[in-house]
Amino acid sequence: MFRVCHSLLVALCLLKHARGDFVLSINPSQVLIGITENVTIQCEFKGSVSASEYDTIDRLRILKETATHDYQIVTEVRKVDHGVDISSSLSSSVKVHGNISNVASTFITLSWSLATSDVLGTYRCDIFGYKANFDVLFEKTPVKVLQEIKPSVQETINLWKKQRGDIQQKISARRDYCDSLVAAVHADINATVADIEQLERNQSNVFKDALLQKVTMLSQKVARLKDTGVFQYWPEGSYALLTPNSGCPENVGALWATGYRKLHTESTDRNFDSISTPSYLQSPSMETVDRNNFMYQHFCVSSGRSRGPAWPRGSYCINQAANGCPSGLSSGYISWQDEVTNSTSSSAGALPRGDYRANSTRIYYCCRADGPASHPIYLPTFKPFYLYRYNGTCQEVCGMKTSSGNMVFDTDNSHGDSYENPFHPDGTIDNVRIELCYYSP
Description:
Radius of gyration: 28 Å
Oligomer: single chain
Order of helices and strands: HEEEEEEEEEEEEHHEEEEEEEEEEEEEEE
Strand content: 35-45%
Shape: globular
């Protein structure tokens, strides 16, 4: 025990502050939540190796300031017996990379593909290392702040135009790819027809066998093409879906707009917010800030330009868009009583039809129960998506695996939750519970 304490005391005595070889950078330093893409926070060695005091780096960490003005570690790369270990307290959607194998290449990077509310804050980088004589070195970079910007109306319009242009480019590229696949199949069909015509002129068994082989290969190509989802479109009309952590579904010929509702739940008494695990919802989904509790619902809102068919018969619910339900689905809503005391519920981006106030939330749904849930329906299978459970069982979708889940909102204890009618997702009120169905390829 004495030797351990003595070693710690010696380490503290030898601790020296390095002169600033590391730099913390944030790009961009101001973001629009749900709009700004490719946000990075990086701490890296920028000094001269020959002039640096560092001989080795033991650990490198990025910290974030808390509500109590302390700093909490969000990610760290450190040396261990078997090599290098990288850890993070952030959601799995945030990518973390780092290296401390030698001083010159030391870095750690956090990457968000799309800015979410958890990216905002004040950051610092701490570095621990050793001199060549084994003196301990410690360095602390100046803090950097990542802020949310509040754009003007015109700036918002310009951003949406840019995002729309980017999405249209992706759609155009995918359409060209699909057209090339269809053209290849069409060419194979023409070649097969020519072979059939040749068969009428030549009835030899050898030619028949070759033709049968070509027909079999063509059938396999068509089957593989169908499996890619090339011929699948999301149903026509305007509507919205919950956003999974993989992002909005692919939809050739149509666009998705994104947004979220941040609902202030019970914060003056014990809180029972919960999300079933594993969760595949877009992050963040739950949050506590200065003893105030929040639940998020992220949405993908359809532009209404999909070339798909009508929504199929079955048993499920979706979110309603501003102009009502698609054909065959019935309208209803759920009302949440948000935290009454100093409520700060908020919204951003595109949302389903609803009434979104600082202390109350109403969201409209479209539901149907005109077919058995056990009878699979056809929807695009290229990427995961969510439907709401209706009538007790998750609707089966052809070619997709189904996982059930739920969200529980601990609403204000004044018991102000309500339904309009039976057309809403399965669940309960007086602490709103919503049953979810997640579909993955």
